[in-house]
Design a protein that fits this description.
Strand content: 5-15%
CATH architecture of the domain at 101-234: 2-Layer Sandwich
Radius of gyration: 27 Å
Number of strands: 26
Length: 386
């Protein structure tokens, strides 16, 4: 029996949880009676192809499907096939949205017990495995290996050159180029590129919002929405700032999105024509109006169309003629809370938008953008962004 270092095979579950830094593969001759090195269990059932041994006949039968390619268990929702019923049952949780395993530290939920166990390592041990090509760190070797696929371009899109960690992620991404949306909502006929997106959308119709905020009792369809809500509403930290106007943001994503205003970049391009857009919602509206692609939400009163359900909900409020948000400083009333907050700046001396060239401050974003264009010319600041 020989022992060789290999990077092409996954670690066994015992080696994996032990976080060995080197993957070891045991190669056995067909005449060897190999036992698993971590326990004393008898494994009488041997695979005739790779000599792997099992304690149960059913486990051997399932394993043989790897060599034969046979996948007898099919998902009735998306037609994906699996080698075992257990794998199929775990997969079905994606469609049902069921996540029975909850982290006691941060309340994040998982479909599988193993995923929760790996997640808990982030709290107890920190991120242990570092990428040698960037600053990212991971809790397991499996996550690091998946991430390294991005650097090696193993799963690279031939359309735009973007790389992904898994083949499944690349498959989902390719649908953004092809326009393929195989999953359709049975209520409103809206279509989606992934099954999980359809599940999340379906909660909008059912009213199912399993993720509740512990601070204000507001509920959300997705855990990521809950996390975003906590950062935006209940946290006062704004560690990210715009290099152009100095505006502060709570998340890196927010500042990246904001910088597009200054740079004039238009990363969202139409696959049917040469039009490009700054925001994804602009592209969605263009595809709907110009190429009749996608679905929309229509107001029953005035038949105005919206690309998002939230847009229709805000619009519907205006038909009621009720303005529930009243300014505490003056008699003005507003339809929505964001409108009221924007109005409050009229009464406040606080000016959160600052020009980084002359330190002049402004109450409103559009004012500092307009000012910066003039200020950069006067001070000889060379910029191709405007």
């Amino acid at each position: 029996m020989s022992v060789v270092v290999s990077t092409e095979h996954c670690l066994c579950c015992v080696c994996y949880t032990g976080k060995s830094s080197v993957e070891v593969k045991t190669e056995a001759d067909s005449n060897d009676i190999t036992e698993h090195p971590h326990d004393n269990k008898t494994r009488p059932y041997v695979c005739t192809v790779c000599d792997k041994r099992f304690t149960q006949k059913g486990s051997l039968k399932t394993h043989k499907g790897i060599h034969s390619g046979e996948k007898p268990f099919m998902c009735t929702v998306c037609d994906k096939r699996f080698t075992s019923k257990g794998h199929l049952n775990r997969h079905k949780q994606i469609h049902s949205g069921e996540k029975p395993f909850v982290c006691t530290v941060c309340d994040k939920r998982f479909t599988q017990k193993g995923s929760l166990k790996r997640h808990k390592q982030l709290h107890s041990e920190g991120e242990l495995y570092s990428c040698t090509q960037c600053e990212k760190r991971f809790s397991t070797q499996h996550c690091l290996r998946r991430h390294m696929n991005v650097h090696s371009s193993k799963y690279k899109c031939t359309e735009c050159g973007k790389s992904f960690g898994t083949n499944q992620s690349l498959t989902w991404h390719r649908r953004s180029h092809s326009g393929e949306k195989p999953f359709e909502c049975s209520v409103c006929s809206k279509r989606f590129t992934t099954a999980q997106s359809l599940v999340n959308h379906g909660r909008m119709h059912s009213g199912d919002k399993p993720y509740k905020c512990s601070l204000c009792n507001k509920s959300f369809c997705q855990f990521s929405d809950l996390q975003t809500h906590k950062r935006h509403v209940h946290s006062n930290r704004r560690p990210y700032h715009c290099p152009y106007c100095g505006k502060l943001f709570k998340t890196e994503r927010d500042v990246k999105r904001h910088v597009l205003i200054h740079t004039g970049a238009k990363p969202y391009s139409c696959r049917h024509c040469s039009e490009c857009f700054t925001w994804h919602r602009q592209l969605k509206r263009h595809l709907l109006m110009s190429h009749n692609e996608g679905s929309c939400f229509t107001c029953e009163i005035c038949e105005k169309k919206f690309i998002y359900a939230s847009g229709l909900q805000l619009h519907s409020i205006r038909h009621s003629a009720v303005k529930p948000y009243v300014c505490s400083e003056c008699p003005k009333c507003f339809y929505t809370d964001p409108e009221l907050k924007s109005h409050h700046r009229v009464h406040s001396e606080y000016k959160q938008f600052c020009c980084f060239l002359c330190d002049k401050s402004f109450r409103y974003k559009h004012c500092v953008v307009r000012h910066f264009k003039k200020c950069s010319v006067v001070r000889g600041f060379v910029s191709d962004t405007f």
